[in-house]
Amino acid sequence: MSRAKLTEQEIEGSLAALNASATSPWRIIDGKLHKEFQFRDFSEAFGFMARAALAAESMDHHPEWLNVYKTVRVDLATHDAGGITELDFRLAGRMEAIAG
Fold it and tell me: Which end of the chain is less packed: N or C, by CB atoms within 10 Å?
Protein backbone atom coordinates (compact mmCIF):
# COMPACT_ATOMS: atom_id res chain seq x y z
CA MET A 1 0.00 0.00 0.00
CA SER A 2 1.45 3.29 -1.09
CA ARG A 3 2.12 6.04 1.41
CA ALA A 4 2.79 8.54 -1.41
CA LYS A 5 0.67 11.68 -1.39
CA LEU A 6 -2.11 11.47 -3.98
CA THR A 7 -2.72 14.13 -6.63
CA GLU A 8 -5.96 16.13 -6.64
CA GLN A 9 -7.19 14.02 -9.56
CA GLU A 10 -6.38 10.77 -7.75
CA ILE A 11 -8.13 12.03 -4.62
CA GLU A 12 -11.25 12.97 -6.60
CA GLY A 13 -11.40 9.52 -8.21
CA SER A 14 -10.83 7.68 -4.94
CA LEU A 15 -13.37 9.88 -3.14
CA ALA A 16 -16.02 9.15 -5.78
CA ALA A 17 -15.36 5.41 -5.49
CA LEU A 18 -15.52 5.52 -1.67
CA ASN A 19 -18.72 7.55 -1.65
CA ALA A 20 -20.41 5.20 -4.13
CA SER A 21 -20.88 2.72 -1.28
CA ALA A 22 -20.71 4.99 1.76
CA THR A 23 -23.60 5.39 4.18
CA SER A 24 -23.07 9.17 4.04
CA PRO A 25 -20.47 11.13 2.11
CA TRP A 26 -16.84 11.57 2.93
CA ARG A 27 -15.45 15.04 2.12
CA ILE A 28 -12.10 16.76 1.94
CA ILE A 29 -11.77 19.36 4.69
CA ASP A 30 -8.50 21.17 5.45
CA GLY A 31 -6.53 18.69 3.36
CA LYS A 32 -7.91 15.65 5.18
CA LEU A 33 -10.45 12.95 4.38
CA HIS A 34 -13.35 13.76 6.71
CA LYS A 35 -16.60 12.14 7.84
CA GLU A 36 -18.98 12.27 10.77
CA PHE A 37 -20.53 8.92 11.65
CA GLN A 38 -23.84 8.94 13.53
CA PHE A 39 -24.90 6.04 15.73
CA ARG A 40 -27.95 5.22 17.86
CA ASP A 41 -26.18 5.93 21.15
CA PHE A 42 -22.82 6.26 22.88
CA SER A 43 -22.38 2.51 23.29
CA GLU A 44 -22.75 1.90 19.56
CA ALA A 45 -20.38 4.78 18.76
CA PHE A 46 -17.79 3.48 21.22
CA GLY A 47 -18.11 -0.05 19.81
CA PHE A 48 -17.42 1.33 16.33
CA MET A 49 -14.33 3.12 17.63
CA ALA A 50 -13.03 -0.03 19.31
CA ARG A 51 -13.40 -2.09 16.13
CA ALA A 52 -11.98 0.71 13.95
CA ALA A 53 -9.01 1.06 16.34
CA LEU A 54 -8.13 -2.61 15.84
CA ALA A 55 -8.30 -2.19 12.06
CA ALA A 56 -6.18 0.98 12.21
CA GLU A 57 -3.59 -0.69 14.41
CA SER A 58 -3.34 -3.66 12.04
CA MET A 59 -2.65 -1.18 9.23
CA ASP A 60 -0.23 0.88 11.36
CA HIS A 61 -2.29 3.92 10.37
CA HIS A 62 -4.08 5.87 13.04
CA PRO A 63 -6.97 8.32 12.61
CA GLU A 64 -7.55 11.70 14.13
CA TRP A 65 -10.98 11.33 15.68
CA LEU A 66 -13.36 12.72 18.24
CA ASN A 67 -16.35 11.14 19.94
CA VAL A 68 -19.21 13.12 21.43
CA TYR A 69 -22.12 10.98 22.57
CA LYS A 70 -23.38 9.23 19.39
CA THR A 71 -21.18 11.07 16.88
CA VAL A 72 -17.70 10.02 15.79
CA ARG A 73 -15.83 12.64 13.74
CA VAL A 74 -12.94 11.23 11.67
CA ASP A 75 -10.11 12.97 9.82
CA LEU A 76 -7.61 10.93 7.83
CA ALA A 77 -4.28 12.05 6.36
CA THR A 78 -0.85 10.48 6.20
CA HIS A 79 1.35 12.90 8.09
CA ASP A 80 4.65 11.43 6.77
CA ALA A 81 3.44 12.10 3.21
CA GLY A 82 2.02 15.54 3.97
CA GLY A 83 -1.46 14.73 2.71
CA ILE A 84 -3.93 12.07 1.67
CA THR A 85 -2.65 8.69 0.47
CA GLU A 86 -4.11 5.35 -0.64
CA LEU A 87 -3.75 4.22 2.96
CA ASP A 88 -6.25 6.85 4.09
CA PHE A 89 -8.82 5.64 1.58
CA ARG A 90 -8.18 2.03 2.60
CA LEU A 91 -8.80 2.86 6.26
CA ALA A 92 -11.91 4.87 5.33
CA GLY A 93 -13.23 1.81 3.48
CA ARG A 94 -12.58 -0.39 6.51
CA MET A 95 -14.44 2.12 8.69
CA GLU A 96 -17.39 2.05 6.29
CA ALA A 97 -17.50 -1.73 6.50
CA ILE A 98 -17.38 -1.63 10.30
CA ALA A 99 -20.10 1.03 10.52
CA GLY A 100 -22.22 -0.73 7.86
Answer: C
